[in-house]
């Protein structure tokens, strides 16, 4: 890492991060897709969240699965993946764990299924597990867990019982009280949060008078959701700061300024997703901007900036 970026080194759930940037699940496959892009390096990020993984192989939703919207993107991939055992046995051994940290993303249809996937990944070199209890583009499981604090807590507790690896709970914005959900998940044993998942959205083909997305609805990401994501990070941080629980803030981050807003609002790390589709080399630019800001404002590191928001 260059001298410019030494102040970006940090820690998340006890895991050392090169930088506060995290590549979000579903945007970089199983950690190898963007390594084929000239100039891209996993060393520029603190961690990579692998594609959402279920217990058994899954084909995903029918097309169309992705649609560009003003200032954002709708997606309804439907968690297409080869199954957790295949990921552990065939994919993880091919990843370079000397470059960055890798976080598994777990998605199940029942509490027991989440626990079984966590058990499988516990016996692997993965650094942490992100529990996806808030996927908006699958008809079963997913959102039912993420929008009910009781169910969210049950999933976290079940996974906590079978692994000692750090658990990061991915929270849904599509719920009444995200802070209360976070509180329940902390009590159940989560080590961190990812805030937020995508919002539910739709696009319509006016000629066919049908939804463009094959699943009818999908998850909206990108700059369009940034103001909502910032507020949710701030709200969850009010609960997390009492328990020293870190947050990955995400939702529409394109620039260093975007990332800094999330850090100031309470995020210890920031997720990069939709921005990669516009600019695969955006991470190095964001790192440079954050590093320069820290120097200009006399912050020794990212941790010193977290949660420094001063309300009016």
What does this protein look like?
With 312 residues, this protein is α/β, with parallel strands linked by helices. The protein has one domain (3-61, 78-201, 222-304): Alpha-Beta Barrel (TIM Barrel). Helices cover 29% and strands 20% of the residues. It has nine helices and 16 strands. The protein has an eight-stranded parallel barrel, surrounded by five helices. Helix 5 packs across helix 6 (226-240). It is globular, with a radius of gyration of 18 Å. The N and C termini lie far apart (38 Å).
How many beta-strand runs? 16
Query: What is the fold named in CATH at topology level?
Result: TIM Barrel
**What's the Cα radius of gyration?**
18 Å
CATH architecture: Alpha-Beta Barrel
- Summed up, the helix count is 9
Helix-strand sequence: EEEEEEHEHEHHEHEEEEEHEHEHH
* Helical amount: 25-40%
Query: CATH superfamily name?
Result: Aldolase class I
- How far apart, in Å, are the first and last alpha carbons? 38 Å
Helix-and-strand structural type: alpha/beta
CATH top level assignment = Alpha Beta
Largest sheet, order of strands side by side?
3-4-7-8-9-10-15-16
Quote the average pLDDT. 94
Question: How many separate domains?
Answer: 1
What is the 3D form?
globular
How much beta, percentage-wise?
Answer: 15-25%
Q: In terms of per-residue confidence, which ranges show pLDDT below 50 for 5 or more consecutive residues?
A: none
């Amino acid at each position: 890492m260059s001298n410019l970026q030494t102040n970006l080194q940090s820690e998340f759930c006890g895991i050392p991060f090169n930088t506060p940037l995290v590549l979000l699940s579903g945007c970089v496959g199983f950690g190898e897709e963007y390594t084929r892009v000239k100039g891209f390096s996993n060393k520029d990020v603190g961690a990579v969240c692998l594609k959402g993984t279920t217990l058994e192989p899954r084909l995903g939703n029918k097309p169309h699965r992705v649609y560009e919207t003003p200032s954002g993107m709708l997606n309804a991939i439907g968690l297409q993946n080869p199954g957790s055992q295949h990921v552990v046995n065939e994919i993880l051994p091919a990843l370079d764990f000397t470059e960055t940290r890798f976080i598994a993303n777990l998605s199940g249809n029942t509490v027991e299924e989440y626990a079984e996937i966590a058990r499988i990944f516990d016996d692997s070199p993965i650094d942490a597990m992100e529990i996806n209890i808030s996927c908006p583009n699958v008809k079963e499981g997913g959102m039912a867990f993420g929008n009910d604090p009781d169910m969210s807590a049950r999933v976290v507790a079940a996974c906590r019982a079978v692994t000692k690896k750090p658990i990061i709970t991915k929270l849904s914005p599509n719920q009444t009280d995200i802070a209360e959900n976070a509180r329940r998940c902390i009590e159940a044993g989560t080590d961190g949060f990812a805030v937020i998942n995508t919002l539910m959205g739709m696009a319509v083909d006016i000629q066919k008078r049908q939804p463009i997305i094959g699943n009818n609805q999908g998850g909206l990401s990108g700059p369009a959701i940034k103001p909502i994501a910032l507020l949710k990070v701030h709200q969850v941080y009010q609960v997390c700061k009492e328990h020293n629980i870190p947050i990955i803030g995400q939702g529409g981050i394109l620039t260093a300024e975007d990332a800094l807003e999330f850090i100031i609002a309470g995020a210890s790390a920031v997720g990069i997703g939709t921005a990669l589709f516009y600019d695969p080399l955006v991470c190095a630019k964001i790192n440079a901007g954050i590093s320069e800001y820290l120097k200009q404002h006399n912050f020794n590191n990212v941790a010193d900036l977290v949660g420094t928001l001063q309300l009016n």
